[in-house]
Amino acid sequence: MVDSGLQLIHTLSATPLGTEMDSRSFTPPLALVLSLLLLLLLPSSVNPNASPRRAYPRSPIRFAEDLIRDLNLQPVIQEIEGEQKGDDSSSPRLVEKRINLEILGESGSDIPIEQLGHHAGYYRLEHTHAAKMFYFFFESRGKSSDPVVIWLTGGPGCSSELALFYENGPFKIADNMSLIWNDYGWDKASNLIFVDQPTGTGFSYSTDLRDLRYSEKGVSDDLYDFLQAFFREHPKYLKNDFYITGESYAGHYIPAAAERVHRGNKEKQGLQLNLKGFAIGNGLTNPEIQYGAYADYALDMGIIGESAYKSISKIYPLCELGVKLCGPSGVIGCLASYFVCNSIFTSIMLLAGDMNYYDIRKKCEGSLCYDLSNMEKFLNEKSVRDALGVGNKKFVSCSPLVYEAMITDWMKNLEVGIPTLIGDGIRLLVYAGEYDLICNWLGNFRWVNSMEWSGHQIFAEAPMLPFVIDGKEAGLLKSYGPLSFLKVHDAGHMVPMDQPRAALEMLKRWMKGNLSEGGTITAVVDM
Ligand SMILES: *[C@@H]1O[C@H](CO)[C@@H](O)[C@H](O)[C@H]1NC(C)=O
Ligand SMILES: *[C@@H]1O[C@H](CO)[C@@H](O)[C@H](O)[C@H]1NC(C)=O
């Protein structure tokens, strides 16, 4: 759920929770469970109607702040040196510059490199005190009429540059810090935006802590303001199809953003955005169902045995209760269920040892489970920072501050708004690499399959069919009308990193409206 979900593990293993877990006995520690139950049953003392924009400070947030202090984490929101404090120019503005990074290899495009627009920019967010949102915009290596695609990385609090450099961006970083064209970058088929959000993530920042966001409402309002500014600056793309995509915790952001854009369109706020669909890769969308799938997935994949399965499964009813108490607007229940439910995951990980929870075939190497250090090195080079116009702002892949601020958002169910969206013909693709534990395909499959919408029955009964690329089965696909689910073979959490070709092909076919196109359907596969 965490993209480069270092954050989840990092936080949990550093809190008392981690120490109370005994690796030799995986029964949930009774004292812990009882205290969390107590917490759950406490009447929520916090005003649930408080506007998320005014939600700071409130008790769980103070709790989160204490956590941050305990963990000795530094807030990453900091001023850009030399910039005026309290820049309160109320008129929103976009500062975008063309970047000319040297890229080795062949772009594979008919468009000469000099004409291929690569941009980086900051947008001063409307409706904030001093927030500036950072983004990259890569014009398509195909045609300018290609759809506009925005990518959101999860965390919460992890930079979308993780995907840019390691998954589906136009280029990758070599060990000697050179950039090399990515033959399967999503900019081959789209005009591609990577944005660092929520505020405080990656290069996006504010000098005012009141700009921190605590819920999907705040996050999606900011993203909507960002999109409005982007299309105002680039009106020629307004007529293009528009898709919202991303991964991991973006299983929360994406449906919320799609809803926000759709509502803006319906209510004729601002520019009409030509939203055609949204795609969630290995996401966290419906926690109640997805946390129920952990033990099943771990058992199926041989990560845990029968007896551990039985013990760990005993935690689930309390997790489920907590998620129910959390509901759409809870606070305390959300916090308690965050800890209870994640103890299911940590219990599995205690048995799994040094397994990479994003790809169970691999070992977790280093604190991030993958070595992503080249990116931080690259983005902190002075020449690169100058080229991007980010001043002296230090780049951090994942922000603990943003993560903690979003802690009561974690257990919220973002499935609830989806039936309306797909009912209005906006397409949804949920895809998942089969070897990811943390946002595994099974939990995603279950929520998609059980979602109530007008096509529910037909979707539920539809067969899983091979997703074929060049005569080879690259995954299993289930589709009906605007809804598709794809289980991707030989991939972990980061599908475009592990299966770049399949991921690009998936994007192209989905945007064209037919994921099975080009594939010969030869067999019906049992799930
Ligand atoms: C850096 O690495 C890339 C890819 O391995 C290679 O093509 C390039 O020549 C190297 N550049 C330098 C300056 O060594
Ligand atoms: C999608 O493509 C497949 C294979 O080419 C074809 O059989 C199917 O009818 C197409 N579906 C739609 C909805 O066009």
From TrEMBL:
Q: Which domain of life is it from?
A: Eukaryota
Give the signal peptide, or none: 1-48
Q: What class of enzyme is it?
A: hydrolase
Decide whether keyword Protease is in the record: yes
Question: Which GO terms of the cellular component aspect does the record hold?
Answer: vacuole
- EC number from the UniProt entry: 3.4.16.-
Q: Which UniProt keywords apply?
A: Carboxypeptidase, Disulfide bond, Glycoprotein, Hydrolase, Protease, Signal
A single Gene Ontology MF term assigned here is: serine-type carboxypeptidase activity
What is any one GO biological process for this UniProt entry? Answer: proteolysis
Name the PANTHER family for this protein: SERINE CARBOXYPEPTIDASE-LIKE 49, SERINE PROTEASE FAMILY S10 SERINE CARBOXYPEPTIDASE
Similarity comment: family membership = Belongs to the peptidase S10 family.
Name of the protein this chain belongs to? Carboxypeptidase
Q: Which organism is it from?
A: Phoenix dactylifera (Date palm)
